[in-house]
């Protein structure tokens, strides 16, 4: 914020005071017209004042958490360049113009503003940043750096030790996030599946009994089923996706291409529903939901494979360059030398780099061009660091070796993150299967005229149109399974776009399960 504490507090007080007449008018209206819900707004001034006081803390927390994701790369960038004799202030000047690290670039500009605008010396500017930055690791890094400078210690050794500490902190954070997601996954199953099935059974029995008695209660039960499956379950899933997103380590940039395909694929749902085919609405819905996510699934799977293949081989690529550089070849020639090796999904990028370098294109321009050819933020980051190491630090064997060590450690942490999150993919699958099977069995036993013991079900025999009840129930189960696919992708693979394929699979499996159920027993409306 660009306000001093005194000015900000004055603004909050002024806005809170201005809301007092509004709250008074609403309270009078609530009393006169007997509109009790309006009486809630009588606490509006206190609410505004409380929100105003909590806003700076929320913004500071958001600033710290967003910087946390870029911190290992930012500190690694400063450390690698410092090993080549580049001062942190010069590094911060270059960092302030980097779009790969938007939050770190903003913090670098804050430090440079203290030097260029307020005429502070670099050490005072770094001390100011360490004192007032809400991110503890960032503040500790630059606070310790200024202390080492003042005492005449080994700056490079300090930075390398802090980088190891940051890696350990990152690994601990990944493990903690995985444990927390596991707790929330259990909570999600409890709310969305167990509570959802309980409410589903309650509303379904109400609909069937109300319809059988002829008292008009069936329509109310059906409406509650529709609200449960189209409002309650999606809201619960969206809430858990949001909570998981706030917990998981994430990249600063996002690939929106699968979402565009998903938005276009949603048009296939009404097309499937209104096709002039003599099949049940349930099958049409399952086909429409599956088809709507298939294009996005294909795009997401292809890009995820390319990204995974490139990220898996990028440490080997940097290590090979560092080893070849020890022979005395220039960095450009090192890249041309290793371009004949197989780097999997990274090979097209490496070969493109070698081709452009052989034509005499400068290395920085080459790396800037090929960065746009990959959707992997980690690969883009490594290529950027490689260009900085060569351009600013001269690409010495020591700097390239430090860069290779840094990339290998980052890659190891990313692999650990994926392996720890992967088991949570299957938890929503179990929930979706439970919902579908429970719904099918419940529909069968409540609508079948024959009951255990050879008698007849009096409620089923009085149902005039059982399909009007069973179709909303089964369609709701299919839709809920489809929604759970997105939660599966977010919990187990770290992104909603990874859930497109799980949503398509669960919608298709739900339709297949219901089709197989009709082979063994009759289900009205299917």
UniProtKB/TrEMBL annotation:
Alphabetized, the UniProt keywords read:
Cell membrane, Membrane, Transmembrane, Transmembrane helix
Q: Which residues form the Type II secretion system protein GspF domain?
A: 77-202, 317-443
Q: Which InterPro entries match?
A: ArlJ-like (IPR056569), T2SS_GspF_dom (IPR018076), T2SS_GspF_sf (IPR042094)
The record's annotation in Gene3D superfamilies points to: Type II secretion system (T2SS), domain F
Membrane topology value: Multi-pass membrane protein
The UniProt entry, under Pfam families, shows:
T2SSF
The entry's localization annotation reads: Cell membrane
Transmembrane regions listed in the UniProt entry = 6-28, 35-53, 73-92, 188-209, 221-244, 256-275, 281-301, 424-447, 467-487, 499-523
Query: Which cellular components does GO assign to this protein?
Result: plasma membrane
Which protein is depicted?
A: Type II secretion system protein GspF domain-containing protein
Source organism of the structure: Candidatus Marsarchaeota G2 archaeon ECH_B_SAG-E12
């Amino acid at each position: 914020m660009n306000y001093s504490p005194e000015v900000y507090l004055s603004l909050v007080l002024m806005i809170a005071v201005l809301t007092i007449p509004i709250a008074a008018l609403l309270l009078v209206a609530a009393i006169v017209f007997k509109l009790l819900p309006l009486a809630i707004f009588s606490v509006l001034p206190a609410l505004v004042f409380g929100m105003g006081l909590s806003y700076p803390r929320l913004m500071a927390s958001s600033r710290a958490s967003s910087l946390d994701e870029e911190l290992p790369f930012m500190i690694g960038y400063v450390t690698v360049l410092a090993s080549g004799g580049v001062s942190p202030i010069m590094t911060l000047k270059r960092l302030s113009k980097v779009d790969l690290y938007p939050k770190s670039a903003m913090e670098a500009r804050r430090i440079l503003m203290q030097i260029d605008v307020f005429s502070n010396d670099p050490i005072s500017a770094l001390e100011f940043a360490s004192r007032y930055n809400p991110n503890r690791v960032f503040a500790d890094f630059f606070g310790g750096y200024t202390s080492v400078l003042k005492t005449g210690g080994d700056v490079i050794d300090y930075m390398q030790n802090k980088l190891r500490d940051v890696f350990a902190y990152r690994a601990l954070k990944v493990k903690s996030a995985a444990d927390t997601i596991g707790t929330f996954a259990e909570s999600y199953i409890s709310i969305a599946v167990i509570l959802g099935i309980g409410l589903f059974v309650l509303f379904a029995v109400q609909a069937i009994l109300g319809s059988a008695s002829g008292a008009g209660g069936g329509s109310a039960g059906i409406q509650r089923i529709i609200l449960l499956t189209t409002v309650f379950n999606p809201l619960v899933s969206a809430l858990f996706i949001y909570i998981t997103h706030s917990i998981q380590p994430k990249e600063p940039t996002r690939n929106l291409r699968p979402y565009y395909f998903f938005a276009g694929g949603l048009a296939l749902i009404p097309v499937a529903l209104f096709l002039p085919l003599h099949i049940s609405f349930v099958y049409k819905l399952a086909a429409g939901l599956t088809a709507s996510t298939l294009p996005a699934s294909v795009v997401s799977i292809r890009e995820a494979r390319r990204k995974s293949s490139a990220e898996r081989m990028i440490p080997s690529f940097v290590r090979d360059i560092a080893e070849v550089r020890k022979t005395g070849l220039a960095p450009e020639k090192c890249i041309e030398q290793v371009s004949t090796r197989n780097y999997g999904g990274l090979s097209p990028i490496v070969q493109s780099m070698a081709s452009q370098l052989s034509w005499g294109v400068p290395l920085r321009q080459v790396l800037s061009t090929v960065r746009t050819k990959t959707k992997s933020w980690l690969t883009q980051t490594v290529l950027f660091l490689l260009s900085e190491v060569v351009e600013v630090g001269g690409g010495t064997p020591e700097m390239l070796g430090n860069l290779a060590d840094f990339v290998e450690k980052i890659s190891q942490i990313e692999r650990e993150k994926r392996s720890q999150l992967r088991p949570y993919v299957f938890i929503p699958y179990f929930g979706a299967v439970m919902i579908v099977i429970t719904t099918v069995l419940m529909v069968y036993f409540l609508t079948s005229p024959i009951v255990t013991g050879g008698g007849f079900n009096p409620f089923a025999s009085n149902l005039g149109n059982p399909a009007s009840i069973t179709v909303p129930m089964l369609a709701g189960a299919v839709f809920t399974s489809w929604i759970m696919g997105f939660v599966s992708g977010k919990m187990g693979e770290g992104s909603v776009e990874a859930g497109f394929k799980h949503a398509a699979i669960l919608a298709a499996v739900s339709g297949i399960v219901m089709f197989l159920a009709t082979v063994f027993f009759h289900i009205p409306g299917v």
